[in-house]
Each structure stands twice: as structure tokens, then as C-alpha cells.
Amino acid sequence: MFQDALKAGLAGAEEGPISDMIACPGLDYCNLANARSLPLAEKIFQRFTDPDRRAEIGKLRLNISGCINACGHHHAADTERFETSEPSIFAIGDINHYPGKLKLILSGFHEAALMAHAAHGIVHPDKKIRFQYTTSSSSLQQKLGVA
After folding, report:
1. Whose CA, among 87, 97, 121, 139, lies 20 to 30 Å from 81?
2. Range from 20-34, 59-73, 90-104, 132-146 carrying the lowest mean pLDDT
3. Is residue 8, in this structure, part of any structural domain at all?
4. Cβ(64)–Cβ(21) under 8 Å?
């Protein structure tokens, strides 16, 4: 059966790499959701289509939920890196509850920045993050067409 699926272009199941993610249906199919999960999951999947790149990144599990009901099966995350109790698994946004959290989109952006910084170390352990700001980086300004 696997060989038939492979010939039909339907074989590709993997366990562990970034392409093996759980995404709830989100706003596309759920009345409880407040965010669209599936388009984000699709963009991540399309970004990492190369099997060699996925192998290079190694195990990195993504769980994406469109609301606080957590159909994406998240775990509790620390608030320094937003990594869960499961190594290389991150949770940000409405799924997180911690003392002092404000339910603002701004809080989600803050969590996303810290999570991305931590995930970068897993995906690119040999590369340093170079922060740039649109107010002072001429290369960013040129890319945005405002230079």
C-alpha cells in the first residue's frame, strides 16, 4: 500500500521534523476560534519542503491552535523562551496563561519574538541572530522600499 501511495505522490508522512505539525482547524471550520490556524501551518509546511533541510533542523514539533481551547494540544510553556515542558515544543498566544499576562495582541507579538529567538537556536545552532531595526537599518529600509 505504501508503494502505491508513493507512486501516486501521497506518501510523505514523517514523525518528528518541522513538517510533522498539529494544527487545529481554526476560523476556517470552528465557531470558537479567533485565529486562522491552517494557513499558518500550510505556509510553514511549504517553507520546509526539502527533506534534507528538515533532517538538518531535526526534531522540532509545532502545535498550532486558533483559540484558547487548544485543539492543537499545547503544553505549559516557560515565559522566558515559551518552550514547553517538551523540548523543542513552543506555545504562544491565547493558549498561555501566566501571572500578569495581558490579553492583548501585543502580548502575542512579545511571546512570538521570544519563542522565535529560542527556536532559532534549535534550527540554526551555529548562527548568531543579528537584530536589525527599520528605523536604523539601511538594508531593511531598502528591502521595504523606504530608503
Report:
1. 139
2. 59-73
3. no
4. yes
Parallel/antiparallel/unpaired status of strands 22-23 and 63-64: parallel
Burial of 62 per CB tally in 10 Å (0-12, 13-18, 19+): buried
At which residue does the C-alpha cell 548562527 appear? 127
Averaged pLDDT for residues 122-139: 89
What mean pLDDT comes out for the span 122-144?
89
Domain count, the chain: 1
Query: How far is the C-alpha of 65 from the C-alpha of 105, rounded, in Å?
Result: 15
Residue 94's beta-bridge partner residues?
Answer: none
Residue 86 is assigned to a structural domain of this protein: yes
CA 129 to chain centre: 17
Which pLDDT band holds residue 106 (cuts at 50, 70, 90)? confident
Q: Which of 71, 68, 90 is nearest to 79 (CA)?
A: 90
In terms of phi and psi (left: phi > 0; alpha: psi -120 to 50; beta: otherwise), the region of 10 is: alpha
- The residue behind cell 505556509 is 43
The pair phi, psi for residue 5, each rounded to 5°, is: -65, -40
Q: Is the pTM of this model over 0.85?
A: no
77 pLDDT more than 80:
no
The Cα 31–Cα 9 span in angstroms is: 33
